[in-house]
Design goal:
single chain; alpha/beta; 49% helix; globular
């Protein structure tokens, strides 16, 4: 069994999800959102995200992490701030000794729903279907679980390729 952590970066809300993988079976462990105060300055918010992720890693003990890649939007300032949060999301698991993997939003949607054009509602519905018992309360947490599921699928495929297993 391996424990994966999915992270959906955000400066205001950073989604996280923990999934256990055994063979081709997925099991929901936990999920949630790290929230920062929008009135705080950016360095304080980044510290809060860092501390929250460190606490989650100590609590749940994942062995690998997956982080969603940042998309660029029209507001350069917002993109830059999202980049700061993404930096924390990449750095914290790496500092904890986890291998960290990155996936684009379309790859995540294709892995979970089957199409890169899936809506947030479709992703949440499929996450709940793939992880029975997951009571996802926020889209950020659903996205984080979807990232973990995506990594589980890519990880399994990479292992099959590495061992020379042919898939039907």
């Amino acid at each position: 069994m391996i424990r994966l952590m999915g992270i959906d970066p955000g400066l205001r809300f950073m989604g996280w999800g923990i999934v256990d993988v055994e063979g081709n079976r997925l099991r929901h462990v936990a999920d949630g959102v790290l929230a920062t105060q929008s009135g705080d300055d950016v360095p304080r918010r980044l510290c809060d995200l860092h501390e929250g992720l460190m606490k989650l890693i100590r609590q749940y003990g994942p062995t690998e992490a997956a982080v969603e890649e940042t998309y660029v939007n029209r507001n350069g300032s917002s993109t830059l701030k999202l980049g700061y949060a993404r930096g924390v999301a990449l750095l914290v698991p790496a500092l904890a000794g986890l291998s960290v993997h990155e996936y684009g939003a379309m790859a995540v949607k294709r892995s979970v729903v089957g199409t890169g054009a899936a809506t947030k509602e479709q992703v949440t519905m499929m996450v709940r279907r793939l992880l029975p018992g997951a009571e996802v309360k926020r889209a950020d947490a659903s996205d984080a679980l979807a990232i973990a599921i995506c990594h589980a699928h890519h990880r399994a495929s990479a292992q099959h390729v590495a061992t020379g297993v042919r898939m039907a």
